Amino acid sequence: MRVERIIFRNFRQLRAVEFLFPHSQHDLHLFVAQNGTAKTNIINGINWCLYGDEPHISRGSEKLPLLNMNCLEEASDNKNEITIVELYISVDDEYNIIFKRIQKFIIKKDIQGRNKPYENGQEFNVIMQRRNSTPEILLNDEAVNNVERFIPHKIRDFYFFDGEKLDSYFRETTGNRIKETMNKISGIDLLKTILNRLQTFLLDITRDIAKANPKADNTSQQILFKSNLLKEEEVARDNYQEQIRVAKQRLSDIEEFLKDSPDVISLEDNRNQFKKQKIQITNKINKAVKDKNELLYRVGRLVLLKDVILDVNELIKNKKKNNELPPRIDRDLIEDSLKTKMCKISNQDLPPICITEFKKIIEKFELSTNVASQLTEMGPVLNQFENEIKKFPDLMKELTVSIVDLEADLKKSDDSIAEIDNLLSNYQTDKIRNLAEERMELEKAKDSSIGRLAIEVESIKNLKNDIEILNSKLNNELDKIELNKSRLAEKELIDRTVRYLENIIDSLSLKIKQKVQERTNELFFSLIWKKGTYNKVIINDEYNVELFHSSGFSSLGSASAAERELLALSFILALHNISGFDAPLFIDTPVARVAGENRINMGKVLGNISLGKQVTLLFTPDEYSENIQRELSHLTKNKHSLKLISNEHEVKLEDL
Question: Is the pTM of this model over 0.70?
Answer without folding.
Answer: no
